[in-house]
Each structure stands twice: as structure tokens, then as C-alpha cells.
Amino acid sequence: MKALLLAGGLGTRLRPLTENLPKPMTPVFHRPWLEHLIVHLRDQGIEDIVLAVKYHADKIQSYFGDGESLGVNLQYAYERQLLGTAGAIKNAQAMLGDTFLVFNADIIHHIDLQPLLEFHRGHRGLVTIGLTEVEDPSQYGVVQRTKLGEIIRFVEKPRREEAPSNLINAGIYVMEKAALDWIPESRETSIERETFPTLIENGMGVYGTSIHGYWMDMGTHERYLQVHRDVFDGKFPLRLSTPMVRDGVWMGRNIEIAANVRIEPPVVIGHGAVIEYGSTVGPFTVVGDQAVIGPDCSVRNSVIWPKARIKGRTQLSGAIVGHGFTVTVGETAAREELEAVMQ
Ligand code: GTP
């Protein structure tokens, strides 16, 4: 079965990190999230993958090419203008089979797809939506279902006590090609806000079933940091590309660590990084490839992207420092000051 990955959006909520980078390409432990996703799908036997791209499509294509190095066949569906989550699926129609999977490529997850596919086969709807449970449904569109799992409606941002469930659309679908007849050609259309409600109104068979396993929408800075924390806490089983050199410390090649440096696990340090005299790195910190932590700095609970430089005795906590950016705040830095990037 083919999978379509929606990877063309602007990622505005994650700016400035996404100023020059598609959101699914943001690094998660030294690799673009999209690479982790493609490998995860390949490991479940999904080797034919279509990428629906628009915003900085060149960065995705130049990184993955035809997918051979990852053991998959990649095709690209380009959009001339942003078509929205439904329009992007319609635009890729010619590359898809009769039944296919769709993923929002910015959803970080680790789930077994077999139960979702079996549910879809068993219920024979036009669409099966993977549902994930949230603690507080008041910020989301919550689903109301029949006993058989058919979705009757989405209740947008219900008061907590009035929510019919705490299950929300996880951004993972199994779809029949016939569902695409309900999407207009060449105009921006949202699958969540337009297509699914229309299919439901017309009784076309939109089902929902819970997915089990790690799930996180990485669309905001807080959630992006949370994903890293969850890997360190063992909640999200991500395969790291750097070896563990001692308990809770993963290090790449050619790292320079000066005297009098404290490494407080858990920490992951990328290839060619430099940690200078008197600095403290960690806990819960990822240092990107070739990043430099200058003398007497402290970096904790943070994600430092490749080639960034932290200087001037700066103390960082809860920060994301973008590719190649230099931080010279001097004293203790608030996170808001530091979510700046230069790609
Ligand atoms: P925000 O601007 O922060 O809301 O991010 P976004 O629009 O990039 O992401 P959103 O969460 O709205 O979309 C979910 C997924 O669909 C993301 O992986 C997006 O890249 C993708 N997506 C959104 N709009 C489009 C589109 O018009 N075309 C394509 N190909 N993908 C899209």
C-alpha cells in the first residue's frame, strides 16, 4: 500500500525555525523528522511513498532524492499554490492506488499501522481516521461516534464537561480513492474542516478508531521540546544515530571536549561539536553537529541545531537555537529571546 505524506505547509507556528525550512524537516535528534518517519514506514513494509510538497520543496527533494538510500521509492507531488490538506491529496491522485494511507508529516508518532488498516478493511468506509486521546479536549475538534465507530460529527473546542469523547483526529488516515471525488480541483481545501464534515453529512462512511503508541503534533516550540524530552524519558522509542558512550550520554565522532567540562546525562552530542572550558551541558540536551558551546556556558533542557554557537558565559534553559545561529546573551537567557534562527 502507498502512503502519502503531507509536507507542503508553511509551518507558521514553528517560526522562526521554519523560516527557511519545511516543518517536517526540522531535526529531531540529528535527523529531519521526515527521515525518521520514512524509516518507520519502511520498517512496517510501506516502501512506496508520495511526498506532497510546496513550501521549500527543493530542500526535501535534494535531501531524499528518489529514496533509494533509505530503501524506499519516493515520488513527489508538487503544488503550484498551497492547496491545503485536502487539495494536496487531490493533487497527488494520479500517483495513488485504490486504498492508501495519508499522514500529516509534522505528526511525530510511533504506532503500529496494522490495527488501523484492519479496522478500515473490516468497516469498508471511504475513510478511517486514526484517533488519539487527549487529556483536555477543549482545544480540539473532538469526534462523536456510533457504537460501530462511524463518526457522526466533530465537536469543535467543546467545554471539557460537554465533550462527547476525548478523541481527536490524529492526522493519520486510510482513504479510498472514491473519497477524492468530494474534493474540488485546484483550490485550497482543508480535509479536516471541509472534506470530512461534508462526507459525514452525506453519510459516506467516515470511521474513526484509536491508534496506540506515541503521538505528538510538533507544531509549536513547546511541543517540539517535549518530543525531545519524551525520547530522553523513554516514552518515544526513537532510534538515535549516535552511539551511547556511557549511561545516558550519546556522542558522535570528532567531538572536542575541553578540561573542566560537566556533561550531565541525558545528553546527545553530534559529530564535530566543540564544548569549551568550564561549560556544563545537560541534562535533557541535544547538541547539533559542529555546534560550539563556548567557555563557561551552561546549556540544559535545550535543543541546539547544527553549527550554532553559544558564547559569552551564556546560560540556556528550555531553548531551541536554530541552524548556525550565535547566542551571546551573556547572562541567564529567557527562552523567548532565544527562539531565533538563521538558516
Ligand atoms: P502552521 O502554519 O503552523 O499551521 O503549519 P502548517 O500549515 O505547515 O501545518 P498544519 O498543521 O496546518 O498541516 C498539517 C500537515 O499538512 C503539515 O505536515 C503540513 O506540511 C501539511 N500541509 C498543510 N497545508 C498543506 C498544503 O497546502 N499542501 C501540502 N502539500 N501540505 C500541506
Task: Chart the SSEs and their pairings.
Elements: E1 2-6, E2 27-28, E3 31-32, H1 33-43, E4 48-53, H2 57-64, E5 73-78, H3 84-91, E6 99-104, E7 107-111, H4 114-123, E8 127-133, E9 141-145, E10 151-156, E11 167-176, H5 191-201, E12 206-210, E13 213-217, H6 221-232, E14 244-246, E15 249-251, E16 256-257, E17 262-263, E18 267-269, E19 274-275, E20 280-281, E21 285-287, E22 292-293, E23 298-300, E24 303-304, E25 309-310, E26 315-317, E27 320-321, E28 326-327, H7 335-338
Parallel strand pairs: 1-4, 1-6, 4-5, 8-12, 15-18, 16-19, 17-20, 18-21, 19-22, 20-23, 21-24, 22-25, 23-26, 24-27, 25-28
Antiparallel strand pairs: 2-3, 6-11, 7-13, 8-11, 9-10, 14-15
The chain binds guanosine-5'-triphosphate.
CATH topology title of the largest domain: Spore Coat Polysaccharide Biosynthesis Protein SpsA, Chain A
Low-confidence stretches: none
How confident overall, as mean pLDDT? 93
Q: Termini separation (Å)?
A: 36 Å
Rg calculated over all Cα atoms: 21 Å
Please identify, by name, the CATH architecture of the largest domain.
Alpha-Beta Complex
Residues in helix, %: 10-25%
Number of helices: 7
**CATH homology superfamily name of the largest domain:** Spore Coat Polysaccharide Biosynthesis Protein SpsA, Chain A
- What fraction of residues sit in β-strands? 25-35%
Ligand kinds: guanosine-5'-triphosphate
Biggest sheet: strands, sense, closure?
Answer: 7 strands, mixed
Shape, per Cα inertia axes: elongated
Count the E strands.
Answer: 28
Q: Please indicate the count of domains.
A: 2
Tell me the structural class.
alpha/beta
In what order do the strands lie side by side in the largest sheet? 5-4-1-6-11-8-12
Which CATH class of the largest domain? Answer: Alpha Beta
